[in-house]
Design goal:
Keywords: Coiled coil. Helix content is about 70%, strand content about 0%. The protein is mostly helical. It folds into two domains: about 1-110 and about 325-384; about 115-265, no CATH class. A two-stranded antiparallel ribbon has the order 1-2. The two termini are about 25 Å apart.
């Protein structure tokens, strides 16, 4: 009865192993690295669980029912399962190596639409602060943006200050270009015409201007920010190409005078006005002095401070990655040691089977005795 149980467990190995190899290939070459990595880890764990269950049952048969079970049937199964364990250990080591590579990169997963929306909301919340939104030091500003983002993000969505700033800077360039094209096209679009056709024209124009065959991937971003005053402006294509300089807070700066497509917009209260409303007893000289915070020299100082902050953050990330890499390498080394032990055991078992089936009819009594002693030694080492 137990032999049939062993065969049933054995029949599970091959589909598990095949599925694990497919998942491992996806881990190595797939686009959704984290998802496939987790699937592969689960598959390996299930496979190892069945393997160890099989081995435990088999060893119980060998030790407790040696007399009722034919060794010729049991021992080849034992040899087979040990080789399977070695293969599984190799797969597990490969998954660990891929995991280590993924952790080192730290950029295997693109920002999701939800993560983009959280970042946009955090940026808008901080940039629209009438008291000191634009006069914050860049280092402080992006720390507050990241803090606002992480306040509403899940554990898997958490981002560092550098990740928030870099993603915003990179993406805003594309969004601003798309928005500029939209404003130009809309300014000449006949009133009452189909907006869907307008958007199709804008998308095609963007691909032409950006010299790409891929459609604009951040329409959700653009829909979120296009009603903001900073985006409600029209630019020529030449001006859009020149607008590629960001200040330290992630907003565009341009020497060209912006023209609002819907007329003059009422600007939100400025920093100095808001501070005067907050504290009417402040002198005008202090307000003027505060205005110097937006000067070119202070912008440069803020940029230097931001670079220092990013450098310190990269050093902290590097330390964390090194610690994780050391841990993963230790796990891989443990797997290698266990695999070597299994190989030694398989070699002994193979030798035992060879001696067990060896024809000793031509041996004298001394040779037969030594042969039996070796068999007993190996059997005790393997099963005792």
């Amino acid at each position: 009865m137990q032999i049939y149980m062993l065969k049933e467990v054995t029949s599970k190995f091959h589909p598990y192993l095949q599925g694990t190899m497919v998942l491992l290939t996806k881990v190595t070459w797939g686009s959704t690295l984290r998802e496939h990595l987790e699937q592969a880890q689960v598959a390996v764990q299930l496979l190892l669980l069945d393997a160890y269950l099989f081995l435990d049952l088999l060893e119980a048969l060998v030790q407790e029912e040696m007399r009722t079970v034919q060794l010729d049937l049991v021992l080849p199964c034992h040899l087979h399962i040990m080789w399977m364990k070695i293969r599984l250990s190799v797969i597990k080591m490969a998954v660990i190596v891929v995991l280590m590579r993924f952790r080192k990169k730290g950029k295997g997963k693109n920002w999701s639409k939800r993560e983009d929306e959280l970042l946009i909301a955090a940026w808008v919340h901080n940039s629209c602060d009438p008291i000191d939104g634009n006069s914050k030091r860049a280092e402080t500003y992006w720390k507050e943006v990241a803090a606002e983002y992480n306040k509403y993000a899940t554990k898997e969505q958490k981002k560092t200050v550098g990740q928030c700033k870099n993603h915003w800077t990179k993406t805003t360039k594309k969004v601003t270009k798309f928005n500029g094209i939209y404003n130009v096209e809309k300014s000449t679009w006949p009133s009452g015409s189909d907006d869907k056709q307008l958007m199709e024209r804008v998308r095609a124009k963007y691909m032409s201007v950006a010299k790409t065959k891929r459609p604009f991937p951040y329409e959700h971003w653009w829909e979120y920010v296009r009603k903001e005053a900073k985006w409600r402006r029209s630019y020529s294509v030449e001006e859009m190409n020149k607008r590629n300089k960001l200040n330290a807070l992630g907003a565009y700066s341009s020497p060209t005078q912006a023209i609002d497509e819907e007329g003059e917009l009422q600007r939100p209260p400025g920093r100095n006005t808001s501070k005067d409303a907050k504290d009417k007893h402040k002198s005008s000289s202090k307000s003027k002095c505060s205005g110097s915070l937006t000067s070119e020299s202070v912008d440069k100082f803020n940029e230097i401070q931001l670079r220092k902050s990013i450098a310190a953050e990269k050093m902290a990330d590097a330390t964390l990655i090194q610690a994780e890499a050391t841990k993963v390498q230790a796990e891989a080394e443990n797997e290698r040691v266990e695999t070597e032990k299994e190989k030694i055991k398989v070699d002994k078992l193979s030798k035992y089977l060879d001696l067990l089936h060896k024809n000793t009819s031509a041996y004298d009594d001394a040779q037969k005795k030594r042969h039996e002693q070796v068999l007993n030694f190996l059997a005790n080492d393997l099963f005792g």
